[in-house]
Design goal:
- It is built from 14 helices and 12 strands.
- It is an alpha/beta fold.
- It has 2 domains: 133 residues, Aspartate Aminotransferase, domain 1 (Alpha-Beta Complex); 240 residues, Aspartate Aminotransferase, domain 2 (3-Layer(aba) Sandwich), CATH 3.40.640.10.
- The strands form 3 sheets. Strands 2-8-7-6-5-3-4 form a 7-stranded mixed sheet, sandwiched between helices. A 3-stranded antiparallel sheet has the order 9-10-12. A two-stranded parallel sheet has the order 1-11.
- Helix 3 packs parallel to helix 4, helix 10 packs parallel to helix 14 and helix 11 crosses helix 14.
- It starts with a strand and ends in a 9-residue tail after the last helix.
């Protein structure tokens, strides 16, 4: 069966160049980077190179990059670490209603410890208003955390402006950039970012590897205590093959950035045009301006998004009904709910996400099968134009 993968926002395939770079570190170059003999030093050099490659992607210094197990770990490190480090100054954290659950659930845990959390709303386009950030600041605010790109509707937030507000009030600013990395320009120095979370598997690298950018001068308490790995900040033997893969993926993302954005945005716009013209009663969620280049989130009236997903899967087409981390949950998307979309319409929503290996023929094939699926489901549905219970 033909396979068309349109869920790049959930995860990406590992590129061949990345895998080729990783393979020697599983068997031939298997040294522990903490060992002082030659194989260990060889592994240490590989980690140093990867640190430089990841740093270059966001214009950071290599010494400001700390490898983690995933983006969620990086998010947890920031929130828990800042809460512990600054609890003597205050107990107030500002974030948004549409953050990834790695942020939201950690904030829930901090609330149980006595911290106050402000969840900022989003507008009809899914954007955060920087003025709302400033209004929410109190003399107890210790951290502002706003994601760079939303993982469900692809909205790009004005992070640079928000970081300026945080700096003016001498408050730490963090952004979860897992969806933004490699998809929108990131310059931590120009944008004034203090802390930034990343993940390898969103940029054609391996799963199980993330990183935290921690601006020089900031020292969060360790999330994991033990050995002296990661300059004494994050204990545990490093995942050398994974980190090497992250480094190579970052190098490729930097080199191919313009081509990647042009390719993804062209096919996304083509997909949006065909669906909105050829299928009635559909709505694009979020603005098409200032959006992740490969993201298209669409609501189909009168039918269930999960049914669309399952029937498309029978044609070999992979899409999502929300973020992959929530795919087993029956709760409506908190992001779409924050946009003001009704529960009924939220359940009829599908996210298509395009990547480097997507072709125009893939899009054409998907639209033709999607038209069949939607027509069939609407025929079976008791709802819709001219229908009633």
């Amino acid at each position: 069966m033909r396979e068309v993968y349109l869920d790049y926002s959930a995860t990406t395939p590992v590129k061949k160049e990345v895998l080729d770079e990783m393979i020697p570190y599983f068997c031939e170059k298997f040294g522990n980077a903490s060992s002082l003999y030659t194989p260990g030093l060889e592994a240490k050099r590989a980690l140093d190179k990867a640190r430089e490659q990841v740093a270059a992607l966001i214009n950071a210094s290599p010494q400001e990059i700390f490898f983690t197990g995933c983006g969620s770990e990086s998010d947890n490190w920031v929130l828990n670490g800042a809460a512990q480090l600054l609890k003597g100054k205050g107990n107030h954290i500002i974030t948004t209603v549409e953050e990834h659950h790695a942020i939201l659930h950690t904030c829930d845990a901090l609330k149980k410890q006595g911290f106050e959390i402000t969840y900022l709303p989003i507008d009809e386009n899914g954007r955060i208003d920087p003025a709302d950030v400033e209004k929410a600041i109190t003399d107890k605010t210790i951290l502002i955390s706003v994601m760079l790109v939303n993982n469900e509707i692809g909205t790009v937030h004005p992070v640079k402006k928000i970081a300026e507000i945080a700096k003016a009030h001498k408050i730490l600013f963090h952004t979860d950039a897992v969806q933004g990395l490699g998809n929108v320009p990131i310059d931590v120095k120009d944008m004034g970012i203090d802390l930034l979370s990343m993940s390898a598997h969103k940029i054609y690298g391996p799963k199980g590897v993330g990183a935290l950018y921690m601006r020089k001068g900031i020292r969060l308490p360790n999330l994991i205590n033990g050995g002296a790995q990661e300059n004494g900040r994050r204990a545990g033997t490093e995942n050398v093959p994974g980190i090497v893969g992250f480094g190579k993926a970052a190098e490729l993302a930097k080199a191919n950035f313009d081509a990647h954005v042009a390719h993804a945005s062209e096919l996304r716009d083509y997909l949006a045009e065909r669906i909105t013209i050829e299928i009635p009663h559909v709505y694009v969620n979020g603005t098409m301006a200032e959006r992740h280049p490969g993201n298209l989130n669409i609501t189909f009236e009168y039918i269930e998004g999960e049914s669309i997903l399952l029937l498309l899967d029978q044609f070999g087409i992979c899409v999502s009904t929300g973020s992959a981390c929530s795919s087993k949950s029956l709760k409506p998307s908190h992001v779409l709910a924050a946009l003001g979309v009704s529960d009924e319409l939220i359940h009829g929503t599908v996210r298509f996400s395009i990547g480097d290996f997507t072709t125009k023929d893939d899009i054409d094939y998907t639209v033709e099968k999607l038209k069949l699926v939607v027509a069939r489901l609407r025929e079976l549905s008791p709802l819709g134009p001219g229908k009633s219970w």
